[in-house]
Amino acid sequence: MFGDVLEDELQSEYGLTVGHWPQSIALSTVGGWLACRGAGQLSNRYGKIEDIVIGLDVVLADGTIVHTGGHARQSAGPDLTQLFVGSEGTLGIITGARLRARSVATANHSSAWAFPSFEAGADACRSIIQRGLAPAALRLYDAAEADRNWGTGDIAVLLAFDEGDQATVDATTTITAEECSSAAPLDAELVTKWFGHRNDVSALEALISRGYMVDTLELTVSWTDLPVLYTTVRDAIAATPGIISSTAHLSHSYSDGACLYFTFAGKAAAEGPDAIEEMYMSAWNAGTTTALTHGGSLSHHHGVGLNRARFMSASQGEGATSVLHAMKKALDPNGILNPGKLGMPTAFGDLPDRFGSEH
Ligand SMILES: Cc1cc2nc3c(=O)[nH]c(=O)nc-3n(C[C@H](O)[C@H](O)[C@H](O)COP(=O)(O)OP(=O)(O)OC[C@H]3O[C@@H](n4cnc5c(N)ncnc54)[C@H](O)[C@@H]3O)c2cc1C
């Protein structure tokens, strides 16, 4: 079921919401959210999809139907729901899911803040989230990305938005204002502008149709490692021949770290798809190896697929990789489910060189 259809039905018929709002809400499905361990834009309030799901129906490679979870919590062995969440279709096909739903919000509040640096803004996000009650969205844009979006000049811009009942929203509004006391308030209209265009990627598509390469790379990093990782990954991507823009925003916050979301664009010196692909793979290699060196995770919500498969064993370690491969062998001995995804061994020959070789 597509995300927008789910939310339309839930809200209009039951006054409920799952609260999972990825930018791809109208392009993506509940099964895809679960298969890729996705995140919605309001995940500080509603959780990432692995926090929202309580049970699954899964069809295994041999046709066996498995039902997992279904209770608020239980203590009955490992959580098999979470085994399939993020498995990207390599262990089974998700055919049903039980998700937590909440009442549709009755109040909301927006604010926007100017920080002298991305690092100062990130520190405010950390302080807010560590108070234990944070706005549904805290989105911090570095100066280049904010200026590109809203013409705000040489400042990092934090957008804060919360929704819920009035008392909760009042509390997060107070907490946000207290932790942003060193920042200059901006017009909250910026949040409205973000909401109006938050799922609109037509500007990127326009660049791609003119021969530019545009992509995004997201990951998580601890608050301690965030400042160094932000600059080194941004600069490593920017140093790739052909890259003309490398910017970032902080999109999701946790008590122990945050998701950084890098956006990069470039134009290859030579014409044709091979030159674009070479630039694309070089930018990904530079960004990912730098991130892994500086304490970043391989991904936050886009998953691994084929493009990140070559980094899986390096990022997960030998022990974890062998457990994952053993599970694959047990559940899909003939390797028929999504061969090559997640860096799993494939029975159908090697992946093309550009995806297959470990970096
Ligand atoms: C413009 C754009 C914006 C995006 N924004 C976000 C965002 O804000 N947050 C976010 O988390 N992601 C985002 N994404 C990535 C993507 O939409 C999500 O990861 C989404 O969760 C994938 O769902 P899908 O239905 O599109 O899956 P697909 O792309 O169709 O499939 C992804 C993988 O999951 C497997 N799969 C799909 N359904 C099932 C199933 N039922 N059972 C088993 N395996 C399955 C597929 O085989 C494939 O390997 C964005 C993508 C685009 C293009």
From TrEMBL:
GO BP term, example: lipid biosynthetic process
Xref: InterPro entries: Alkyl-DHAP_Synthase (IPR025650), FAD-bd_oxidored_4_C (IPR004113), FAD-bd_PCMH (IPR016166), FAD-bd_PCMH-like_sf (IPR036318), FAD-bd_PCMH_sub2 (IPR016169), FAD-linked_Oxase-like_C (IPR016164), Oxid_FAD_bind_N (IPR006094), Vanillyl_alc_oxidase_C-sub2 (IPR016171)
A single Gene Ontology CC term: peroxisome
Residues of the FAD-binding PCMH-type domain: 1-104
Presence of keyword Lipid metabolism: no
Cross-referenced Pfam families: FAD-oxidase_C (PF02913), FAD_binding_4 (PF01565)
Sorted UniProt keywords: FAD, Flavoprotein
Cofactor(s) needed by this chain: FAD
Gene3D superfamilies referenced in this protein's UniProt entry, alphabetically: 3.30.465.10, 3.30.70.3450, FAD-linked oxidase, cap domain/gating helix, Vanillyl-alcohol Oxidase, Chain A, domain 4
GO molecular function, one term: FAD binding
Family: Belongs to the FAD-binding oxidoreductase/transferase type 4 family.
Protein name according to UniProt: Unannotated protein
